Amino acid sequence: MEAAVRIAQLRTEIERHNYRYYVQDDPGIPDAEYDKLFRELQTLEAQHPELVSADSPTQRVGSKPLKSFAEVPHRTPMLSLNNAFSDEEVRVFDTRIREALGIPEVEYAVEPKFDGLAVTLGYRDGVFVQGATRGDGSTGEDVTENLRTVRAIPLRLNEAIKDVEVRGEVLMLKADFIKLNDVQRARGEKEFANPRNAAAGSLRQLDSRITANRRLSFFAYGIGLCDGVALPGRHDREMDLLRHWGVPVARQCRVVRGLDGLLGFYREIGALRAALPFDIDGVVYKVNDIAQQRQLGFVSRAPRFAIAHKFPAEEVMTTLLGIEVQVGRTGALTPVARLAPVFVGGVTVTNATLHNEDEIRRKDVRIGDAVIVRRAGDVIPEVARVALEHRPADVREFVMPITCPVCGSHISRQEDEAAWRCTGGLFCPAQRKQALLHFASRRAMNIEGLGDKLVEQLVDTHIVNTPADLYKLRLLKLIALERMGEKSALNLLAAIELSKHTTLARFIYALGIRNVGESTAKDLAQHFGSLDNLLVADADALQQVRDVGPVVAQSMADFLAEAHNREVIQQLREAGVYWAEHQPQPATSLPFSGKIFVLTGTLAVLTRDEAKEKLEALGAKVSGSVSKKTDYVVAGAEAGSKLDKAHELGVAVLDEAEFMNMVGQVSVA
Ligand code: 9MJ
């Protein structure tokens, strides 16, 4: 047989087995048989290098390690989901949707909630070209090489779609997780706590050859941007389309009607949970009709048309050995339970939060008690309640310290707050350490290698007091520290140097201003465009920023009122921290700001007025006549002279499907 023919056969057969294994949970052949086919293909390709193609299964073996992952801005945001923890919260969700849409019953697409990592897969002309993690929803990390090794991810779609983003979740099947831990144990290497951690650890490998040995899986749950084919206007049909393209979609996805349909699905999947080949932490409900989804829109970064209904957190009993008070980055004193180690929610837990003093009183938690500890997914484990029937006779009451347990400063508590706070600010070593860890964290300045232990040493030895001091570190100082070798010291200095080139948003976030999280920092950076503009902004100016209210404005003012904070900012700039400043965006900056549209002909889905309203809401101008300045002409049925004019001037013309797709893209992911 001709090599090219056999190669094509082998590729098809191998991909078919991948699909059966990862999607249908029904491996067609034993691993050894699969390996034989794979080796035959490798041998043939080695003999005929001209026949090797980027989408061959042999290309899933990983490549040279990267130095770091590049950042990828998402062309359409990757949303997160709001959660519901009870039937009642689901009822409220359904009622709100019915009322907003003005209909008696809603059709929902329902899906398992995969407990993995969200990724986006970019295909051009049907070929997988780029994959990225969710990151903060607007920018992720380029993990293309790692995703290429995931056999469940098609390297080529069954149709050559021009440009499409597939959204889904990377996870590890339970069976593969068990096998992986067997291997880790046999090699004397660290075992993973649960499939999610194993998947996360494998996906974030700079060396994709390691990822290739980890057998990750993938399930799609949506389509981001799509160009080159009109989407069907219903979520379930989009899922069918993905299946048709060869993308894995979970078998459990379904369409139901009304609240009873939602809760029925929740119970059904709950009963199936243990028998599923992958871990799930709940189910997801989405309004099925895409036009209705658009009508409902978003709150903040989560869609109003979807919700995750989470399974209850796992609970176990253990002994409360003691209560320690920790001081956080903003000075909040948090009582932390020290526990007899216990396995819960997929990990071994030795600490759990007790939130604050009032919670300890309310739950009547005493040292020595038998306590019920709860942990769900990624959240911090907490002490849910005391098992009073198991209370020993010799329990002790917890007493809140009257000064900061770390620096001895006075502690205070605002009337409307549950937490006591240390008033020491950056005088308090605990706050200083936390501030530095936050500054160096991945989403802030991203200084790899600056972990708890090192920060502890640097602060305790007074080598580093403020973030600016990090940029003054020298090799000799570092290698004088205990347990610090020359190689680690050099790596750290390189990471610090690398962190100097950042973005304004990261810099603002890194400062650790109270109530200024990542998304607010982004909004501030976007709005003000430069740090100097931000530094002179008063409360009124600040409140012009999207999502900024009096609380954030006050936090900013408090932060900037401290001379030492301004001093640190100045020192950081002098140390060479920089970013590209961009033009400030007007407060009304919207996806289509500055774009001029002309509508012509008859539209089928929207009326002309609705289309105009939609465009204006997105910041576009809608004009009556076509000129060179026109960005797009939207041509419905029987479009006449305006369409001709557009062609004449070379203005981009959209048909209604393309237009709907485009307005959908900017608001729906
Ligand atoms: C998960 N994690 O299984 C979504 N998800 O949809 C499902 N996540 C999602 N859908 C929009 N099934 C944003 C996130």
Please specify the SSE layout and strand pairing.
Blueprint lengths: L2 H20 L8 H17 L23 E3 L9 E2 L2 H15 L5 E8 L2 E8 L2 E7 L5 E3 L2 H5 L14 E9 L2 H13 L8 H9 L4 H5 L4 E11 L7 H11 L8 E4 H15 L7 E8 L2 H7 L1 E2 L2 E2 L2 E5 L3 E14 L5 E12 L2 E7 L3 H7 L6 E6 L6 E5 L24 E2 L8 E2 L6 H12 L11 H9 L6 H4 L4 H5 L6 H14 L1 E2 L1 H7 L7 H11 L2 H5 L3 H4 L7 H12 L1 H12 L3 E2 L16 E5 L7 H10 L3 E3 L8 E4 L5 H9 L2 E3 L1 H12 L2
Parallel strand pairs: 2-13, 21-22, 23-24, 23-25, 25-26
Antiparallel strand pairs: 1-6, 3-9, 3-10, 4-5, 4-7, 7-8, 10-13, 11-12, 14-15, 14-17, 15-16, 17-18, 19-20
Helix pairs in contact: 1-2, 3-9, 12-13, 17-18
Number of helices: 25
Bound small molecules, deduplicated: 5-amino-3-(furan-2-yl)-1H-1,2,4-triazole-1-carboxamide
Shape: globular
CATH class wording of the largest domain: Alpha Beta
CATH second-level architecture of the largest domain: 2-Layer Sandwich
Question: What is the count of structural domains?
Answer: 5
Distance between the termini: 47 Å
Structural class: alpha+beta
List the defining traits of the structure above.
21% strand; 37% helix; 5-stranded antiparallel sheet; Helix Hairpins; 669 residues; 5 domains; OB fold (Dihydrolipoamide Acetyltransferase, E2P); 5-stranded mixed sheet; D-amino Acid Aminotransferase, Chain A, domain 1; alpha+beta; binds 5-amino-3-(furan-2-yl)-1H-1,2,4-triazole-1-carboxamide; 25 helices
